[in-house]
Amino acid sequence: QQQLVQSGGGLVQSGGSLKLSCTASENIGNFFFISWHRQAPGKERELVASINSAEITNYADSVKGRFTISRHNAQNTMYLQMNNLKPEDTAVYYCKLNLPQYGREYWGQGAQVNVSS
User: Fold this and answer.
1) Which of 11, 76, 96, 97 is the most exposed place for a label (fewest CB within 10 A)?
2) 3-class SS of residue 89
3) Going along 8-90, which residue ranges are E strands?
4) Residue 57, Cβ neighbours under 10 Å: how many?
5) How far is CA 12 from CA 20, 40, 85, 90, 115, in A?
């Protein structure tokens, strides 16, 4: 059973940086869609960034130029580098893996990111 284990997160001052990691327990193969989402208190979960197996990336307007999604294929690990963090970035961040050929999706356990002003 595929599992995603997240690490990273924590408390940082405004303008600081954090890097989130998400490691899959099994090989994710060559056809996949990886995304990072976040959910702030009282708000719906929103898509932050995504990358597909063709290395095409997309970002929410609110994080463009500040966040970078990447992956290390051999390690089955995905990353979200977050720079110039703002208080409004405070949320629980989740990684998600979609395997379209199997019709399956998996979520990480979530990581709290707190940005103080």
Assistant:
1) 11
2) helix
3) 10-13, 18-24, 33-39, 46-52, 57-59, 67-72, 77-82
4) 13
5) 13, 16, 8, 10, 5
Distance CA 95, CA 23 (A): 9
Do residues 38 and 92 lie in contact, with contact meaning Cβ atoms separated by under 8 Å? yes
Per-residue pLDDT reduced to its tens digit, 25-74: 998 888 889 999 999 999 999 999 999 999 999 999 999 999 999 998 77
* Strand, helix or coil for residue 86: coil
- Give the DSSP H/E element, type plus range, for residue 112: strand 111-116
Helix (H) or strand (E) holding 55: none
Parallel/antiparallel/unpaired status of strands 77-82 and 67-72: antiparallel
